[in-house]
Amino acid sequence: MVISKSHSLVLIYSLLLSFALLSSAACVHGRKGEQDPYEEYDQCQRRCEWEVRGERQQEQCEQRCERQLEERLQSQHRRRGLNPEDPQRRYEECQQWCEQQAGRREQPQCQQKCQGRFQQEKQAQRQLQQCQERCERQEQGQREQQQCQSKCQQQVVEQQRQLQQCQERCERQEQEGQPKWQQCQSKCQQEHEQRRQQQEQEGYNPHRHTMTRREEEEEEPEQEEEQQQQQRNNPYFFPYRRSFQSRFREEEGRFNILQRFAHKSPLLKLIDNYRLATFEVNPQTFVIPHHCDSHALYVVTNGKGVITFVNDENKIAINVETGTVLKAHAGATVYMVNHDNREKLNIAVLAIPVNTPGKFEEFFPAGNRDPQSFIQVFSSRVLEAVFNSPREQIERIFRPREQQGQKSQQGIFRRAEAQQIRSLTQQATSPGEKGTESLAFNLMRQSPIYSNQNGRFFEAKPENFKQLQDFFVSVAAFQINKESIFVPHFNTKATFLVLVTEGSANVEMACPHLSRQSQSVEQEQEQQEEERSGEFKQVRAKLSAGDVFVVPAAHPVTYFTSQNQNFKAIAFGLNGPTTRRVFVAGKNNLVRQMDSEAKEISFGIPSKLIDEVFNKPQESHFMSFSPQQRQPREEEMRGNNNRLSSILEFARMF
Q1: What is the extent of the structural domain holding 420?
Q2: Where is the composition biased (Acidic residues) (predicted)?
Q3: pLDDT tens, 24-49?
Q4: Are residues 258 and 139 in the same domain?
Q5: Do both 514 and 624 map to the same domain?
Q6: Is pLDDT larger for residue 370 or for residue 541?
Q7: Which of 162, 360, 401, 550 has its CA 20 to 30 A from that of 532?
Q8: Per-residue pLDDT tens for 169-182?
């Protein structure tokens, strides 16, 4: 449930006031001797706690403290001429002050402080937005929503306050002539980042987001509650509503990014450098140019559009549709447009960071305030020299003033005019045409490697597609029809990230790691793994559109649908460019290929009985999954219960 817009604006406005106060400290022209409004707020809160009796009276007292804090902040900003809604303008004022007031030697350090404060403010705004999005995804009432959003504000403001206090200590050390100012500032930033990450991990705790309503529903069937609990404790299951955050959430589109894999479970630390993200672009919308410090694979999961790659020598525009796969090396500048009038353009992105493991950032050459162009960071002297243009002319490009009666668009998703869209798309070529061979192909136009009336499976591997060879990643897409099953199988080398694009299905997987999860100390876990193996736990989840499921290498897995839903998904295969898929059921399965003696010794029963089970299926890969097939007849079970116990033990993992 989304809380009222007015309440949300109050929270954001109050928070931005505090951000503006912090950023004003970067330009050293604040008033000295002025008491910190937060110190006054703390004193006021302590007086409420010590001097006021009664819970209701204390609450009223604390509310007065909050109103006083807001009034003090507003008063300070009016005196300082700051607009709390405009961090970019504060940054520009800070830079101008450095150029006008600071000495030539102090200018670089002054501008560095301006940039640092600006980045802190933008990061804090993003952190607040992400926290409030998690509040919106909670299944709870409006009062709890407001409390959650208020807590988001308090947490972010407190973190910024601690960072400011640390940085002020560094400033005092600098004024006293103590060396290592840079190291002091870096330590402040590191401590702040550690606090932020710790809070982020806590925010991802599924119990914080789903248990409130669950606990109130006492009449919920016990079996369903047990299944919900298993899904919450499932380290391989990433439900869309709890696991994605919006890095850019705007009226015309979203860019969502999945939480880091190792934050979910240490079992996934081997793939933690990979990040999964999604674009949702509204009709008639343009995504402004940007590059990233990561390689990327784009897979179009819905809609049509044009994606353009640009460098300092040329550009190439490519028509994309459902199934199109494109690669972009780190540093490649990309922009895109959804030229459709009705349908959204949805794109899945696998990012492989090249700077900081598991982290990547976007860089925008064009922009003014939101987002900021990285070109604006350079000093006016540098820009005047490299563009051979006066400062006023440059500022008209990067700091445009709003035309009378018109507002300049902000954000990375921007509405485009029909004529602009025609110009952007008229020279686009399709995958496979000249110039696109090394960049793009359409996965859905390839021949499926498995196909029958129950489903289809498409796959592109690096060994066959040169577009994938640089990244050692395979791409797959599969569809399971109603009342069908993708039979149990495992991948020999690759770990697969499965992103659901349409419909729903159940997934079951055999996992040896969770069967030993009772040990809490990693060293004891490793010792136990060495001493004991061959035990499995069933991992299962109900998958819906937007959810992600991780299938580690060698883990047998199966997917099946109900009578009401088809199921579609894409998948990225990681760390196994030459992986093979081995089926343990269906017409072609690994047990069927074993020697009779090997089967008899392993199962402990005559091979004839084993063959009656494993040789019986008449279909491969995808099979019908009707209710009659899921419920074996009682008479068959009675006659074979004892003799087939070992076979059933083998099948229990599914």
Answers
A1: 235-364+412-425
A2: 216-227
A3: 444 434 444 456 666 677 678 777 76
A4: no
A5: no
A6: 541
A7: 550
A8: 776 666 555 556 66
